[in-house]
Amino acid sequence: MAKSAFVTGGTGFIGLNLIEQLIQDGWAVTALHRASSDLTYLQRFPITLVEGDITDINSLRKTFPTGVDVLFHLAGDTNSWSKRNARQTAIHVDGTRNLVTVAAEKGVRTFIYTSSVAAWGEVNGRITEALPQQGQHSWIHYNRTKWLGEQEAWKGMDKGMKVVILNPATVIGPYDITSWGKAFIQIKKDAFPFALPGCASFAHVAEVARAHIRAVEKGQNGHRYILGGEPGTTYADLFREVALILGKPNAPKPAPPWMLLAISRLMAGISSITGKEPMLTPEFITVTSRKNRTYSSEKAVAELGYRIIPLKTCVADCHRWLVEEGLL
Question: Which letter does DSSP use for residue 234 in this model?
């Protein structure tokens, strides 16, 4: 019998890949979207679209269907500009709290929450699910609210739902037009003068989406799963692979962290006067300059059948999609 799913964040990068795979697997899908959402890609799928806002519990009660098997909560805000912190809190914390409440009222049995490795905050070294998170102490608002959102999600177990949290690292692949997909366009235009200096763990979006579906049956209630990539990779590796596939002879070189931090602070100061979002923020540069951490996906590999895809393949698949869509 086909399963039914309610998806938040369906217009986003990971959400679109999840919905695509759910439809391929025969699920009946209802996707929530805001009035201002761009439905260009979401409308390609045979799903039910409902308009609402996770920060408004009454709108959720009106739009959330009764008897849905699984809630996939992917809606998030990756903002790193402090001026938008209040909105980020409303989405990550208040929105998750509202969804837990309404999902329980509507009879949802399984709650899959998409968090981030950012919930570990400023910890260093090899990060596994067993390592205590420190996101609650982070000065970076995104990290802190992702941690707080997890605390709200766990409360779903008290309401009788199975709750599984997924913690993706840096995700790349098709449908990416707002995140790292933009790097392809900028590098093609020679508009990216430098690479970010830190390390990263690059996950293929198709595997991240598949892990969400497998978490429904195979994920353990009350457990989390890190979804990362090849160990030892850096943002410079990403920029090098992108330049290579674009036929660029020279990839952007990493800039010194101190220089980028100084530039980001200057931009933040200018933004406080102009009210325009800065291209770089101290929060973003801090996160992308770290060189002393790795993420283990061993638990997800063992229990969810998650696969670590080479960075070269992640880049190639993202590039192919951008070309097919006429974006590159």
Answer: B
